[in-house]
Amino acid sequence: MSANLEYLDVAVIGGGPAGISACLDLSAHAGLKIALFEGEQELGGMPRSCHIFFGLRDRKRAYRGP
């Protein structure tokens, strides 16, 4: 998908957990034009540094980074 940057309110760089979470939170604001840019083929992945509770709320188990 190609986004016209001239008409964006927010550009989120990085489709990892933080970028996805930011987009989800921002999407609660009606009318806000948001684009998520990711360099990899797929979104997601593990954060480079995280605490032991990463994933507990969403995935119901604790994960840790690489």
Features:
alpha+beta; 2 helices; single chain; 21% helix; two-stranded parallel sheet; 66 residues; 2 strands
Can you walk me through this structure?
The chain has helices at about 15-25, 55-60, and strands at about 10-15, 35. The chain is α+β, with helices and mostly antiparallel strands. The protein has a two-stranded parallel sheet. The longest helix is centred in the N-terminal third of the chain and has 10 residues, at about 15-25.
Summarize the structure.
With 66 residues, the protein is α+β, with helices and mostly antiparallel strands.
The stretches of 5 or more residues where confidence is low (pLDDT under 50) are none
Strand order of the largest sheet: 1-2
Classify the oligomer.
single chain
Rounded mean pLDDT score? 78
Describe how the helices and strands are arranged.
Blueprint: E1 10-13, H1 17-26, E2 34-37, H2 56-59
Parallel strand pairs: 1-2
